[in-house]
Design brief:
The chain has 269 residues and is an all-alpha fold. It has one domain. Helices cover 79% and strands 0% of the residues. It is built from nine helices and no strands. Helix 2 crosses helix 3, helix 3 runs antiparallel to helix 4 and helix 4 crosses helix 8. The longest helix is centred in the N-terminal third of the chain and has 44 residues. The protein is globular and about 55 Å long. The termini are close together.
Length: 269
């Protein structure tokens, strides 16, 4: 397969191909390691909103939830790092990666833990602004996409790599819009799946689902938060893979590697 030039459609096409190769079992690893973090996020937000102005009087309870969420966040970063390596290996070889996806160089992992944590911290600092949310999401995606390039531990070099590929602003914006639509579609499908499940349980199982109907009502805050978290979990494998592919293709174009790959593929044929 000859790789198409760098564009939104080429990145999305190659992303779907690579995810199809590496999804089993590495997408499951990503989702399972992210689940605790997402649900603890919901719990913490729910506690803050529920307590309101009295939150300062429940510091111990909030602190315990925050500590558990921090541990879960680090675990989620480890899962993302494994998935990024699996996607990168699949994109390079065209084959499903085995246990080599688990063998992440320590310097690479340390650099990603730093950039991933930094992107998350920036998100929470600027979430209340309109421009800050998409910018920090892009930074988080590029921190994953550039992870395989960080072969030496450091603070400045990983940030420089993120800044270098951030120059593809138009492509990043287009991808963000595409995945924004994908989030909405995923949320609609999840909401419909919940309602169909309730209908089946009530109509054919004879169960009393009145309590679940209240909990899963689209107007409740908890259900809305769960829907957002579930949509993110559904789209995240493709979003991370798209950033890995973008970095690979943009780096190949800058270095002339794409032309060398094309000649090697022709020679192989």
């Amino acid at each position: 397969m000859i790789r198409a030039p760098l564009s939104t459609t080429s990145v999305l096409d190659e992303t779907s191909d690579v995810v199809a190769i590496a999804a089993a079992p590495w997408a499951a690893v990503l989702v399972l390691t992210s689940l605790p973090w997402r649900f603890l996020q919901i719990l913490f937000i729910e506690q803050i909103l529920e307590l309101g102005g009295n939150a300062s009087h429940y510091g111990r309870a909030l602190n315990s939830t925050a500590n558990a969420a921090t541990i879960a966040f680090v675990i989620s970063l480890l899962g993302r790092a494994i998935y990024v390596r699996a996607i990168n290996l699949a994109a390079a070889s065209g084959r499903r990666p085995g246990t080599e996806a688990l063998r992440i160089p320590l310097a690479t992992l340390a650099s990603y833990l730093f950039t991933g944590a930094l992107a998350a911290a920036l998100f929470y600092i600027v979430w209340f602004t309109l421009i800050g949310i998409p910018l920090t999401i892009m930074i988080g995606g590029l921190s994953a996409g550039t992870m395989p390039l960080n072969d030496r531990a450091g603070i400045v070099a990983p940030l420089k790599r993120i800044a270098r590929f951030a120059r593809e602003a138009k492509l990043l914006t287009a991808l963000l819009l595409v995945f924004g639509v994908a989030l909405i579609v995923a949320a609609i499908n999840l909401a419909a799946a919940f309602q169909i499940g309730l209908w089946l349980a009530h109509g054919f199982g004879g169960f009393d689902v009145s309590r679940w109907q209240i909990l899963l009502d689209g107007g409740t805050r908890r259900f809305t938060l769960l829907l957002i978290a579930g949509s993110i979990l559904a789209v995240e494998p493709f979003w991370i893979a798209a950033n890995v592919i973008l970095v690979r293709k943009a780096g190949a174009e800058e270095s002339g590697e794409e032309l060398r790959l094309w000649f090697r593929e022709l020679a192989g044929r």
